[in-house]
Amino acid sequence: MTTAPTPVPAPASAAQSGGGAPGPAATTPATADATTAKATDTTATTAKSTKTAKTARAPRPGKPRAGRGRAWLAALPLLLFFLVGFGLPAVAIAIGAFTTSPDAPDGGGTFTTDNLTGSLQGAYWTALWGSVKLSLLTALIATVVGLPLAQAVATSRFRVFREAVLSASGVLANFGGVPLAFMFVATLGNAGEVTKKFGLTSHGWNLYTFTGLSVVYLYFLVPLMVITITPALEGLRTQWREAAYNNGATVVQYWRHVALPVLVPSLLGGFVLLFGASFAAYATAEAMVGSSVPLISMQIGDALSGNVLVGQGNLALALGLDMIVVACLVMAVYLPLQRRSAKWLA
Fold first, then answer.
1. How far is CA 179 from the centre of its chain?
2. Could you report the per-residue pLDDT of 52-111, keeping only the tens digit for each?
3. What is the three-class DSSP state of 108?
4. What is the CA radius of gyration of the chain?
5. Gap between the Cα atoms of 339 and 105, Å rounded
6. Are 144 and 222 in contact (CB under 8 A)?
7. Contact present, 302 and 308 (Cβ < 8 Å)
8. Phi, psi of 275, deg, nearest 5
9. From CA 100, how far away is CA 104, in angstroms rounded?
10. In this structure, how many other beta carbons lie within 10 angstroms of the beta carbon of residue 228?
């Protein structure tokens, strides 16, 4: 009777090297310690390298970079110009608005609030309110008219047309004063060529009124709006429009729900900028309408030329302070809107 030999189990290494299914590898204590020590050394080396890299990149405390310490020197000429051209006159206006005029009976220099109180009463208040109304109206019309014009420029495929419109807008936005007034007087005045040819006088047209002055102001405000809003229109992502159309939105729905909400800060910022440009305009109105349209800038000109009561020469400074306050309020609205718009269109 033959007995079958008892099988002897093979070592783990032999089983793994064979063609059968791999079994669990046997781990000895010495092998585990070696693996742990190697992993620890690798982690320590990586942490040391990271710390060295951060130390090399980070500037040492107490030793700022040489370029950063002298960077403000580049803005020094601008700061000096702002101080001399705007800061000192503003301080002088503020001081003069609260002191008596040198030709006053007491010799001038006495603190008073009569100048500021008088600048907000009677004809001066009417002129201030007239300037505000004119600026609001012209800025609103220029914003509404300038937006579609700027959109046509931003989406135009013709480079020549685009460059021509932007160049012309840059010129017209800075065209004002006596030449602008003379141009409109020669064309739309009572004896202007266009007025006589189409008989505008018989239809109630008069250039030397509030309406006529508004038309003149639009001549340089609309191009200014085109220049202001065109970069914002170019910042609209093409993907936004494509995504809206792919989801079934119409052109009106795209502008209502996507484009206009993004452009609102830029539009309001442009409106505020146009308001400031219209509010500060002087030479065009002075040369064309004179005192027939009450404006605060006209009142300041009359006060500086001596057309005031004796002892109230500083009333012009008080009127100028009123304009500075309005301008500061306008800038307080304009700057936050610009920052908000930059977040979307960056």
1. 29
2. 444 445 445 555 555 555 777 888 888 898 888 888 888 988 998 898 887 776 667 788
3. coil
4. 37
5. 51
6. no
7. yes
8. -60, -45
9. 7
10. 22
Separation CA 204–CA 219 (nearest Å): 21
* Residues 213-270 pLDDT 10s: 999 999 999 999 999 999 888 888 888 888 988 988 888 898 888 888 888 888 888 8
Strand partners, 111: 99
pLDDT tens, residue by residue, 2-51: 444 444 444 444 444 444 444 444 444 444 454 544 545 555 555 454 44
**Tokens 């306050």 found at:** 325
Show the tokens assigned to 63: 């030793």
Contacts of 109 (CB under 8 A, 6+ apart): 99, 100, 102
Q: For the chain, how far is it from start to end, CA to CA, in angstroms?
A: 95
pLDDT of 211 > 90? The answer is yes
Instruction: Name 74's bridge partners.
Output: none
Amino acid at 19: G
Q: How far apart are CA 260 and CA 265, in angstroms?
A: 9
